[in-house]
Design brief:
The protein is of the alpha+beta class. It has a domain of 154 residues.
């Protein structure tokens, strides 16, 4: 009898524990990345964010109200099943593109963003995904309160679609999945004008992002 009671009590908890994964899918353009790195300009870019929830049948009003505080221009798109047959809320947001992570953190208006920057000893341009650790900590606390499990980026997917809208470019992509093919060493890709590659993170880079607030994506060879 006790085992049945425990199962009844634990079942709803187990349902809500699943709501601790978040995926990101965004587009980058070579001209924007070069302009920001070389001229210090800043802009925002569209991104789709998919957040795992226990059920699309639930009243998600408070959920949307909460998430809107972690992104710029949060707009709900749909709720449905993902490839893993779990329920996901997908929304379109804007995320910053900057060459200064400190200014990104000070604005405190977006959970994630992109960093495109140059270093004094190199002409190359380095592109990163960056995380606002204060906002992530607050969001993780909210998720843990609601689901009894903290938010983990390691289980999530970060997909960057790199669109080349200038003349031919050469990029070194860090270990990841490129057009669904795994690469375990930094690999060079040459893109002609209007060519695109899709870069999806590994769980190692996700864990690095959560721990260090940044993770490398690729380098423009200038």
């Amino acid at each position: 009898m006790n085992s049945k009671v425990n199962l009844i009590i634990l079942f709803p908890i187990l349902v809500f524990i699943t709501a601790c994964k978040i995926d990101f899918n965004g587009d980058l353009y070579t001209s924007d990345l070069i302009d920001v790195a070389e001229n210090g300009s800043e802009s925002t870019l569209p991104m789709e964010v998919s957040f795992q929830v226990s059920s699309c049948e639930d009243d998600l009003t408070s959920f949307h109200n909460t998430l809107s505080g972690y992104f710029i221009d949060y707009n709900f798109l749909k709720c449905g099943y993902g490839d893993d047959f779990m329920s996901y809320v997908t929304s379109r947001v804007q995320v910053p593109l900057t060459n200064d992570q400190d200014s990104f953190n000070k604005l405190n208006n977006s959970l994630v963003g992109y960093l495109s920057t140059k270093y004094d000893n190199s002409e190359n341009i380095y592109v990163y995904l960056i995380l606002n650790t204060n906002l992530f900590s607050n969001l993780s606390d909210f998720v843990e309160t609601e689901t009894f499990s903290p938010l983990s980026l390691e289980e999530g997917k970060f997909i960057v679609n790199l669109n080349n809208d200038i003349n031919d470019v050469s990029v070194d992509v860090y270990p990841s999945y490129v057009d669904s093919k795994p690469i375990v060493m930094t690999t060079n890709y040459k893109l002609t004008k209007r060519e695109m590659i899709s870069i999806s993170n590994s769980n190692v880079s996700s864990a690095h992002l959560q721990k260090n607030s940044w993770t490398p994506i690729f380098v423009f060879l200038m």
